[in-house]
Structures are given as structure tokens and as C-alpha cells.
């Protein structure tokens, strides 16, 4: 997902034994492709160090008002960056400051400057949580629009038993994503995506391949993981980093890709075949480098054989799966995609004209979604944005 599309959460960490769970919250939000910037109180640093959050977020971690020498009003810039501010854990002391509008450190000044939603996950001793002052402070903040993630019941660090435990990390992440408007409509679903080119060896140094960068398939895998799916990405060689929260299966050849895709296909709900699979491969790849002047006859004529058709093979065996294929065309784009839809037993074909300035290797694309029921003309947009549209239509097919 591009930085333009990503949501940003400013995570406030306060001085509570549950502060170590904030690291898990960071990872949970990151799996949903949310950018996290951490602000800590000085007391929070007694429980977990800023270095931990800096390593997880790859962002500066601020503790004091003037930690960022290049930004003399850091609390304002942090507040402006935030699509939401989450304080987890939030102690009784910080809760009281927020209710009274006290701004005596970086965290509370950022919260006071905030115009985005404020989400609070309190954590404290049961008697502090039940104290009328705390309940009143929570009520005040609630009337101002703060979103509360209620503390849980159980054994507390002090030895008492009762309400006051920080809510479950998964629940904090889920409610934060709800406030952000991030879709989680694929939770409990399994998705398999193929991506990138395949590589067919001529000899140990030469091969047959194509120009696929893998960007579209990786964008779909990343979007599916962000929306809660269990994602397997079967990828040919690319220069891309594996998306967070995705099971990555690297392959080289079409036959390797078919074997891995078959294994993942059985249990998946949606299968997206975005890889550009080489149609042909050398029949007898050489075990040594073919050298000019020595192997001229072998280099002059390389016998090719047909590769397995991965989309057609798995499309023919589908049961409950929604099958999405891709058609990279240079002419008669829609007609060729319609023929491919029927020939490969797919539910949807994503068709694009690779003869234009979109498609292979670019950051955006212009496609048509071809289904039996009709054609959806999708305007040119970034591949991360397009990934969500493709998934939206695949999910619709799941419920039919």
C-alpha cells in the first residue's frame, strides 16, 4: 500500500505494567497496513524502552516535548498526521489529565491538539477503575466523543481480581480499525494469490521469462491480509519485499508454481491467479552453460514444450472457490478476456492492455473486470487501490 493510501495511528503508551502489550498492538495494526507512530510518557519508559517501538515501527519514538529538534511544535505535527490516536494502555492519571485538558507532556499535548478520533484503552487497579473520579473522567471524555475500549476482568498485576486489565490486543486492534474505517471483511477466509513471472531455464545462466514485476499480485495479497484473510502468496522471482502477515512461497518455474498453487487451492475461498506464467519452456535445459563457439548448434535451436496451464488446471477442479484470472492483452482485450473466462472456468478475469503505458512494471493500472454477468470498466488507478476493487468483487461472488 502506498503511503498516500495508508492510515496513520499515533499510539500513546503510558506508565503501566501492560505497556509491553503495546508492542503487540503495533504489530496488529501493521498487519492491517496501518502506519504507527509511538508517543510515550516518561513513566512508560520504566516498563518498555523506546528502542523497542523504534525497531517495530521504523519511526522515531517521542517521549519529551522537544525530542524532535527539527520540529519545535512536535505535538502539533503528530496530531495533524494522525487519522486516529490510540492510548493503550491508558493509566488513571493520564485519563484524568485528558478529562481536565491538562497538557504537561508530549502525549497529553498531542491529545489536546488532536482533531482526529481519540481511542482510549484504560488499564489500572480494579479499585482505581471503579473509583467515582475515574468513572466521571471516562464519562466526560465519552461525551466529548472519545471511543473507549473497556477494560477486562481477571487477575491483575497487583494481585487483586476484578476489572482493570487492558483489553485483549486483538479487540483493541479490531476496534481501532473500525474507527479508522479499515475493512476486515475477510476474517476467517483463506486466499491464495499467484504473482510475478515464472522462469524457465535454458541453461544455468539463461532462461525464458517475461516483464512481470509482481506488483499487482503483491498488492492483492497485501490488501487481503489487511482485510483479515489468511493469505498464501505463491510468487515467482521479483524484487519486491514479502507483504506483512502473508505466507510467502517462492518458486521459479511454472511447474513449481502449479505444485504449490494446487496445495494452497484446496482449502482457499478465493484464488487469484495474477502471475504471468511462461507458456513454454525448453524441453531439455542444459546442465552447463552453453558457450558461443562451443555449443552453437544447441544455442541455434532450442526445442520448446508447453507449460501446464495453472489457471485452467485449477479452474477445472474448483468446488467452492471463487477463481480470478488475469488477461494481459495487446489487442481485442475484452473479447480475449471473455473467451478466457469460459475456457479457463474462471469466475472473473481482470483484463488489461499491456501495450499501453500501464500494466507490467508500473505502479498503476487500467483494467476491465470481465464476468459472465457483464463487464466493469475500472478507471486507471494505483495497484493498491485496484487490489481492493478486485477483492470487493470476489467477495461479492462468495455470497452468491
TrEMBL record:
**Enzyme Commission number, as recorded:** 4.1.1.36, 6.3.2.5
Region span, Phosphopantothenate--cysteine ligase:
191-400
According to its UniProt record, in which pathway does this protein act? Cofactor biosynthesis; coenzyme A biosynthesis; CoA from (R)-pantothenate: step 3/5; Cofactor biosynthesis; coenzyme A biosynthesis; CoA from (R)-pantothenate: step 2/5
Keyword Acetylation belongs to the record = no
Domain of life of the organism in this record?
Bacteria
The UniProt keyword set, sorted, is: Decarboxylase, Flavoprotein, FMN, Ligase, Lyase, Magnesium, Metal-binding, Multifunctional enzyme
Q: How is the cofactor bound?
A: Binds 1 FMN per subunit.
Q: Which residues form the Flavoprotein domain?
A: 7-179
Q: PANTHER family, alphabetically?
A: HOMO-OLIGOMERIC FLAVIN CONTAINING CYS DECARBOXYLASE FAMILY, PHOSPHOPANTOTHENOYLCYSTEINE DECARBOXYLASE
Its name, as the record gives it, is Coenzyme A biosynthesis bifunctional protein CoaBC
Give the organism, scientific name. Raoultibacter massiliensis
The gene is coaBC
Amino acid at each position: 500500500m502506498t503511503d498516500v493510501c495508508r492510515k496513520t495511528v499515533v499510539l500513546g503508551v503510558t506508565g503501566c505494567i501492560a505497556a509491553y502489550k503495546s508492542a503487540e498492538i503495533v504489530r496488529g495494526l501493521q498487519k492491517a497496513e496501518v502506519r504507527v507512530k509511538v508517543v510515550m510518557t516518561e513513566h512508560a519508559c520504566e516498563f518498555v524502552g523506546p528502542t523497542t517501538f523504534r525497531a517495530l515501527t521504523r519511526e522515531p519514538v517521542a517521549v519529551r516535548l522537544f525530542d524532535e529538534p527539527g520540529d519545535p511544535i512536535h505535538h502539533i505535527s503528530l496530531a495533524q498526521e494522525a487519522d486516529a490516536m490510540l492510548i493503550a494502555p491508558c493509566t488513571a492519571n493520564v485519563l484524568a489529565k485528558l478529562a481536565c485538558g491538562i497538557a504537561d507532556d508530549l502525549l497529553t499535548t498531542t491529545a489536546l491538539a488532536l482533531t482526529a478520533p481519540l481511542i482510549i484503552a484504560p488499564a489500572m487497579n480494579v479499585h482505581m477503575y471503579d473509583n467515582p473520579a475515574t468513572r466521571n473522567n471516562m464519562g466526560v471524555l465519552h461525551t466529548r466523543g472519545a471511543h473507549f475500549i473497556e477494560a477486562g476482568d481477571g487477575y491483575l498485576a497487583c494481585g487483586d481480581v476484578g476489572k482493570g486489565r487492558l483489553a485483549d490486543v486483538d479487540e483493541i486492534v479490531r476496534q481501532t480499525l473500525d474507527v479508522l474505517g479499515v475493512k476486515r471483511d475477510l476474517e476467517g477466509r483463506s486466499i491464495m494469490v499467484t504473482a510475478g513471472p515464472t522462469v524457465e531455464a535454458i541453461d544455468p545462466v539463461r532462461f525464458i521469462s517475461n516483464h512481470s514485476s509482481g506488483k499487482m499480485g503483491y498488492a492483492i495479497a497485501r490488501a487481503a491480509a489487511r482485510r483479515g484473510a489468511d493469505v498464501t502468496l505463491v510468487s515467482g522471482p521479483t524484487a519486491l519485499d514479502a507483504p506483512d502477515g502473508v505466507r510467502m512461497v517462492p518458486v521459479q518455474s511454472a511447474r513449481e508454481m502449479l505444485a504449490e498453487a494446487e496445495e494452497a487451492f484446496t482449502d482457499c475461498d478465493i484464488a487469484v491467479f495474477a502471475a504471468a506464467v511462461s507458456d513454454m519452456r525448453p524441453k531439455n535445459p542444459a546442465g552447463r552453460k552453453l558457450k558461443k563457439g562451443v555449443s552453437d548448434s544447441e544455442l541455434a535451436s532450442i526445442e520448446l514444450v508447453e507449460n501446464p496451464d495453472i489457471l485452467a488446471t485449477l479452474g477445472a477442479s474448483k468446488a467452492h472457490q471463487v477463481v480470478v484470472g488475469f488477461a494481459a492483452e495487446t489487442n481485442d482485450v475484452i473479447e480475449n478476456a471473455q473467451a478466457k473466462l469460459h475456457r479457463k472456468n474462471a469466475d472473473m478475469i481482470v483484463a488489461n492492455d499491456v501495450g499501453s503505458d500501464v500494466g507490467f512494471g508500473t505502479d498503476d493500472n487500467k483494467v476491465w473486470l470481465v464476468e459472465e454477468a457483464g463487464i466493469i470498466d475500472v478507471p486507471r488507478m494505483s495497484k493498491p487501490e485496484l487490489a481492493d476493487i478486485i477483492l470487493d468483487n470476489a467477495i461479492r461472488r462468495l455470497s452468491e
